[in-house]
Amino acid sequence: MVPAFELLTEAEAGELLRLFRGARENEHRALHRAIDAALSAMPAPLRGASRRIIFGER
């Protein structure tokens, strides 16, 4: 644990956690947009197979 975290109030720690979660969600969305953009540049017959390789079978 980082010693500075012990200096945060409960409200500050909650706000920091909320900010980290928001950043993670934004990063997740940006990654998916980038993958979709890359896949859209591929020929249509390769998109499905490429998506399965990247994300696995669903």
Description:
- The chain has 58 residues and is mostly helical.
- The protein has one domain (11-55).
- Helix content is 74%, strand content 0%.
- The protein starts with 9 loop residues before the first helix and ends with a helix.
- The mean pLDDT is 91.
Q: What is the terminal-to-terminal distance?
A: 37 Å
| pLDDT averaged residue by residue | 91
Strand content: under 5%
Return the structural class.
Answer: mainly alpha
Largest sheet: none
Molecular shape: rod-shaped
Number of strands: 0
Number of helices: 2
Features:
58 residues, 74% helix, mainly alpha
Topology:
Blueprint: H1 10-40, H2 44-55
Short description:
The protein has 58 residues and is mainly α.
